Amino acid sequence: MLPSNPFLRQWGKGTAVALLAFGGLGTVSALWNNPLFMRMTPVGGWEIGLLGALSMLFGLYVAIRRPACADSTAGVGGVLGFLGVACPVCNKILLLLFGGELLLTYFEPVRIYVAAVGTAILAVAVILEWRRGLLLTDAPGRMAGPVLRDTI
C-alpha cells in the first residue's frame, strides 16, 4: 500500500521504477544468466554500471515532477541507453533492420558510447525537471514536494 503523503508516494514510485528497470532491462539484455534470454556477445564490465546509472536516473525522473514536454527527452535517453547495454545481435529489431554483420562491424565498437550518450541525455532530462521543480517553490532555496499530474 502506498503512503498517503504525496511526497513519499512519488519517491516510493521512483524507487520501484529504478528497481524494476534494473531487473527488467538487465534480464532482457541478458547481462546475467537467466532462463529467458541468452546473450550472444560477451558482457563488458561497463554495461552493468551503465544500467545501474540508467535505472537510478529512471527512478529519479519518476520521483520528480514530469510535464509531458520533457517525456520525449527521457524516452530518447532511455532507448539509447538500453540499445547501448543490450546485445546487438540479440536485438531482433536491429538485426532485421541492419543485419548481423553490419551490427557486429559498426555498432558493437560504439555501443559503449551509445549507452553513455543515452545515460547523459536522461541525466539532462532529470536535471531539467529538477530545475523546473525548484522554480515552483514558494521560498527560494527550498524545494517543494513533487507536483503530481492529478493536481495540474
Q: What this model shows, in words?
A:
The protein is an all-alpha fold and 152 residues long. It has one domain (6-151). Helices cover 66% and strands 0% of the residues. The protein has six helices and no strands. It has helices at residues 6-28, 45-63, 68-85, 92-98, 100-107, 111-135. The protein is elongated and about 50 Å long.
* Class from helix and strand fractions: mainly alpha
Number of domains: 1
Distance between the termini: 24 Å
Number of strands: 0
Uncertain regions: pLDDT < 50 for 5+ in a row? 138-143
How big is the Rg? 18 Å
The string of secondary-structure elements, in order, is HHHHHH
* Overall pLDDT score: 80
Q: How would you sum up the global shape?
A: elongated
Tell me the fraction of residues in β-strands, as a range: under 5%
Count every helix, treating DSSP H or I runs of 4 or more residues as helices: 6
Largest sheet: none
Helix fraction by DSSP (H/I, runs of at least 4): 55-70%
